[in-house]
Amino acid sequence: MIAITSNKTSDERIQEIVQFIEKQGVQAHVSKGEDRTVIGIIGQADPKLAEQLRQMSGVEQVVKISKSYKLASRDFHPADTVINIKGVEIGGEQLVVMGGPCAVETPEQIDEIARLVKAAGGQVLRGGAFKPRTGPYSFQGVGVEGLIMMAEAGKKHGLLTITEVMTPEYVDVCAQYADILQVGTRNMQNFDLLRKLGTIQTPVLLKRGFSSTYDEFLNAAEYILAGGNPNVMLCERGIRTFETYTRNTLDLSAIPVLKQLSHLPVISDPSHGTGRRELVVPMTKASVAAGADGLIIEMHTDPDNSMTGDGVQSLFPDQFANLLVDLEKLAPLLGKKFDTQKEAILA
């Protein structure tokens, strides 16, 4: 349920309404817009509360939200959420590109890739320090040392950093070194992890489970939002279908659907979404056309010899740079801004 007030309602009156709601044993979340303020009511409210609110001065409308996810719903927050991370805005007019290897391997490797990402015009360095792998004998990442390596490379080259966090116990240490924490597809419904991420303010990139519905995806985001962390991004990274030619099936329709259902920024991952290097470039462009706020793209200096074995979906540096040049031309046609900083582009 939401209570809607007009822009003429004072902040003092809104606070009085919030206090009244919370006295009923439920939570109130305030979302301010240009022409109205929405007060989201979370919890099992007394059926009489709706009528009581309708009769209060300052309340123009009370609407019942049938969706199980409330805070993630566009009904609660009509305007797009824009997450500002050290001056980089995600969810607004700016198209954001996150690039880098599947995993951090050595200081030299991540430093060189960070230089290339920055030179091409990317804003965020991606890299895994802890890697959830299907087989127990596969490379599992270099751990906290990898976090330190990536943090140093990001700071040196003026990039934000994003890395995957796998367990609640590692949330605090990952947040210490990374600007954005990623929840992988296998952990989308790791509810203990989601609850822990709700207790911090570090932005979270939540990847869709490879067999999850939109409703399940948005309810997973709701766990983080309900815990008190409003900085959540949704990532479409491909779902599992009967097709075996590609690693996954990138669900491009998820981008406009999620933008319709939710106010949260939507990021596309064409690398995992296809698993094939030759498909990453066209599906990146298609994602932008579908309305994505950003991309997370794998790039490696020597993808055929990467330690994770995911090199088949990683772009070479020149492919990455050329793709970003194309995005600079494409973005304005679709209402986005993107600047590759031409003076720094690879020769």
Number of helices: 11
Instruction: Work out the helicity level.
Output: 25-40%
Shape: elongated
* Number of domain modules: 2
Q: What series of H and E elements makes up the topology?
A: EHEEHEEEEHEHEHEHEHEHEHHEH
Protein name: 3-deoxy-7-phosphoheptulonate synthase
GO molecular function: 3-deoxy-7-phosphoheptulonate synthase activity; aldehyde-lyase activity
EC number: 2.5.1.54
Keywords: Transferase
Quick summary:
This protein has 347 residues and is of the alpha/beta class. 33% of the residues lie in helices and 18% in strands.
Write structural notes for this entry.
It comes from Paenibacillus silvestris. It holds the Pfam family DAHP_snth_FXD. Residues 1-67 form the DAHP synthase ferredoxin-like domain. Its EC number is 2.5.1.54. It is an enzyme of class 2 (transferase). The chain is an alpha/beta fold and 347 residues long. The protein folds into two domains: 1-61, Phospho-2-dehydro-3-deoxyheptonate aldolase, domain 1 (Alpha-Beta Plaits, 2-Layer Sandwich), CATH 3.30.70.1140; 81-332, Aldolase class I (TIM Barrel). 33% of the residues lie in helices and 18% in strands. The chain has helices spanning 11-22, 48-54, 107-120, 144-157, 171-177, 191-197, 214-226, 254-261, 270-274, 277-290, 317-330; strands at 2-6, 27-32, 36-42, 59-63, 83-85, 88-90, 96-100, 124-126, 160-164, 180-183, 204-207, 232-236, 266-268, 294-298. The strands form three sheets. It has an eight-stranded parallel beta barrel, surrounded by six helices. Strands 2-3-1-4 form a four-stranded antiparallel sheet.
